[in-house]
Amino acid sequence: MSELNIQVESLQNLLVSKATGGLENDAEFIKLRKVVIEQPQLDSVIPAFLKTCRNLAQFWQFIKYEFPSYHERRNFIWGQFQPMLDVLEAGGPAPADKNASKVFERFDSKYVQTAWSKALDRRNDDPEGAITMARTLVEAVCKHILDESKIEYGDSPDLNKLYRLTAESLNLAPSQHTELVFKQILGGCTTVVEGLGALRNRLSDSHGRGKVAVKPAARHAELAVNLAGALSVFLISTSEAATKNST
After folding, report:
1. Interval 89-93 mean pLDDT
2. Which of 56, 65, 187, 230 might form a disulfide with 174, Cβ 3.0–4.6 angstroms?
3. First CA to last CA across the chain, in angstroms?
4. What is the mean pLDDT of residues 186-213?
5. Residue 19 burial by CB count (10 A; 0-12/13-18/19+): exposed, middle or buried?
6. SS3 letters across the chain
7. How far apart are CA 48 and CA 165, in angstroms?
8. Distances, alpha carbon 32 to alpha carbons 5, 37, 61, 223, in Å
9. In angstroms, rounded to a whole number, what is the distance separating the alpha carbons of residues 205 and 200?
10. Is pLDDT at 206 greater than 60 in this prediction?
C-alpha cells in the first residue's frame, strides 16, 4: 500500500471518528486534507464536502445536520471515500477520464467542468444522477460554443436542436460533407446525442417515476458518461481548432 493510500484512509478514519463523537486533532485533519486536495489524479473523485470543509468545525457543522445517526454518517463517509481509494488501488483514473478532464480544465466554463466532475463522481453510486449529468455536460458544451459564436438558440431548446446548431457552426453536420466515412462518423455523433437524450428521459433521475420503473445499472451510467465525455471533447477540440485557424 502506497503512502498516499495510507493518508487517504487515515483521513477517512479521522472523519469517521469525528462524526461519531470522537475527539480529533484539527491540525492533523488540515494536513491530510491538503495532501489529498493537491493530488491531481484524485481531483475528479474528491468528495464535495472535503473541498468545502476546511477544518473539523466546518465538517462537524455539515455532518451533524446532514445525517442524524452515527450509522448514516459512517456509511456516507465510507461511500464518499471509496472512489478515491478505487482510483489509488487501480493506479490512477482511467486514461480517457484523465484526458477529458484536461480538456475541460482549459475550456473556459466552470459549469462544464462541474458537470463532468459530477458525472464521474456518480457513475457507481448514483447511476441515475450520472446519466442526468452526462446529458447536462453535452448541453453545457453546446451552449458555450454557441454563445461564443453569438448563435441564438432560444430559451428552452432541446438537446437535439442544440447539437444540430453546434455541429453546423463547426462544420460537423453530416449534410456538410460528401465523403461517406465522414458522413457515417458524424451521423454517429448525432445518434449518440439522440441516444443520450432518450437515455436521460428513460433512465435518469430527471423525471418522476411510475409504479414500474427501469433503473439503470452502473454500466449504463458508465456508457452514458463515456459517450458524453468523448463527444464533448471532440466538440471542444474542433471549436478550438476553428478559432486557431481563423486568427
Report:
1. 62
2. 187
3. 50
4. 71
5. buried
6. CCHHHHHHHHHHHHHHHHHCCCCCCHHHHHHHHHHHHCCHHHCCCCCHHHHHCCCHHHHHHHHHHHCCCHHHHHHHHHHHHHHHHHHHHCCCCCHHHHHHHHHHHHCCCHHHHHHHHHHHHHCCCCHHHHHHHHHHHHHHHHHHHHHHCCCCCCCCCCHHHHHHHHHHHCCCCHHHCCCHHHHHHHHHHHHHHHHHHHHHHHHCCCCCCCCCCCCCCHHHHHHHHHHHHHHHHHHHHHHHHHHHHHC
7. 34
8. 11, 9, 19, 34
9. 8
10. no
CB-based contact 189:195 (threshold 8 Å): no
Q: How confident is the model at residue 212 (pLDDT cuts 50, 70, 90)?
A: very low
Give the residue with greater pLDDT, 23 vs 86.
23
CA 48 to chain centre: 12
Q: Is 27 exposed, middle or buried (0-12, 13-18, 19+ CB in 10 A)?
A: exposed
> Rounded distance, CA 196 to CA 140, Å?
14
Digit-coded pLDDT (tens) for 121-170: 787 778 888 899 999 999 999 999 999 999 999 887 889 999 999 999 99
Tell me the whole-structure pTM to 2 decimals.
Answer: 0.60
What's the mean pLDDT in 4-31?
93
The burial class, CB within 10 Å (0-12 / 13-18 / 19+), for 91 is exposed
Give the pLDDT confidence score for residue 135 in this predicted structure: 92
What are the CA-CA distances from residue 60 to residues 51, 65, 208 (Å)? Answer: 14, 8, 33
Q: How far apart, in whole angstroms, are the C-alpha atoms of residue 26 and residue 197?
A: 46
For residues 88 and 49, give the distance between their C-alpha atoms in angstroms, rounded to a whole number. 20
